Amino acid sequence: MSSPSHAVLLATSLLLSLLSLIPVSCLDKSPLPSPEGMLPEQKIRLGSTPPSCYNRCNQCNPCTAVQLPTLPFQPNPVRPSRVKEAHQMDDPSSYSNQYSNYKPLGWKCRCGDHLYNP
């Protein structure tokens, strides 16, 4: 119990135990980036990135990524009725008429006049 190696082992384990209690955020003292410095980074991340169209156009070249408006999907077209007209404001699906000119964009691969899924 009184050997020097036992004392070194005890001191090392005590030191490691104390270090594990210090939060990592206290050790990192690097300055935070200024908001001006973050603007180019944010601009890079806005929007979606074009997909890779490599080998997507059935050996047609050049195969390039293009953004096109996507077609809305309606599995069952809604038929107007008098009951639905009375409760149109209560139905959340009727709110889509408010944004009928909204056309989300999606990516496709284009070669010539042909479009391919990425």
Automatic annotation (TrEMBL):
Query: Is rRNA-binding one of the keywords UniProt gives this record?
Result: no
The primary location reported for this protein is secreted
Q: Which GO terms describe its biological process?
A: guard cell differentiation
**What positions belong to coiled-coil segments?**
none
Q: Report residue spans for region: Disordered.
A: 74-97
Question: Where is the protein situated, by its record's location annotation?
Answer: Secreted
Keywords, A to Z, come to: Developmental protein, Disulfide bond, Secreted, Signal
Signal sequence range: 1-26
Q: Is Secreted one of the keywords UniProt gives this record?
A: yes
Q: Which GO terms describe its cellular component?
A: extracellular region
Q: Which family does it belong to?
A: Belongs to the plant cysteine rich small secretory peptide family. Epidermal patterning factor subfamily.
Function, as annotated, reads: Controls stomatal patterning.
What name does UniProt use for this protein? Epidermal patterning factor-like protein
Q: Which organism is it from?
A: Ensete ventricosum
